[in-house]
Design brief:
CATH architecture: 3-Layer(aba) Sandwich
CATH superfamily: Glucose-6-phosphate isomerase like protein, domain 1
Strand content: 5-15%
Order of helices and strands: HHEHEHEH
Radius of gyration: 17 Å
Shape: globular
Number of helices: 5
Structural class: alpha/beta
Number of strands: 3
Largest sheet: 3 strands, parallel
Helix content: 40-55%
Oligomer: single chain
Number of domains: 1
Length: 120
C-alpha cells in the first residue's frame, strides 16, 4: 500500500511487519474500494491480514499470487501464475499489473466518458 519509509519503519519497529498493510486498510479503506494484494508465495502474512481486514470492511479483494498459497481462497478474485519459480511469478505479475492499469485507464478515459462538446 505504501512506500512511506517513515510509516513502515515506525510501525514495524513497534508492532512488526505482519500488520503493516492491515493498518493501512483500516485507516484508508472504505466500502466500495478494491484492494489488490500481491504475494509470490500466496502466504505472505501481512497481505493475508490486509485481505481479511478489507473483506470484513466491505472492500473487494483481488490478489496476484503464484500457483500455491492461501490467498487465492481468501480473496474475492485471484490471478494465480501457474508456477512456483519466484522470478517467473514476479515477472508475470509485472505484466499483469500493466494490463490491469491499461484496462482501468481504457475504462476511465474511454470516449464514452469524455466530456461532450458541441461544434458550431
Amino acid at each position: 500500500m505504501t512506500t512511506d519509509t517513515s510509516f513502515l519503519t515506525a510501525f514495524a519497529n513497534d508492532t512488526g511487519f505482519e500488520g503493516i498493510f492491515e493498518r493501512q486498510v483500516q485507516a484508508l479503506g472504505k466500502p466500495g474500494d478494491l484492494l489488490i494484494g500481491i504475494s509470490t508465495s500466496g502466504n505472505s502474512t501481512n497481505v493475508i491480514q490486509a485481505v481479511k481486514t478489507a473483506k470484513s470492511a466491505g472492500i473487494k479483494t483481488l490478489v496476484l499470487t503464484g500457483q500455491s498459497g492461501q490467498l487465492k481462497e481468501l480473496s474475492d478474485a485471484a490471478i494465480a501464475v501457474p508456477s512456483d519459480d519466484t522470478q517467473h511469478i514476479q515477472e508475470s505479475h509485472l505484466a499483469i499489473e500493466h494490463i490491469l492499469c491499461h484496462l482501468v485507464e481504457r475504462q476511465v478515459f474511454s470516449s464514452n466518458h469524455a466530456p461532450k462538446t458541441t461544434t458550431p
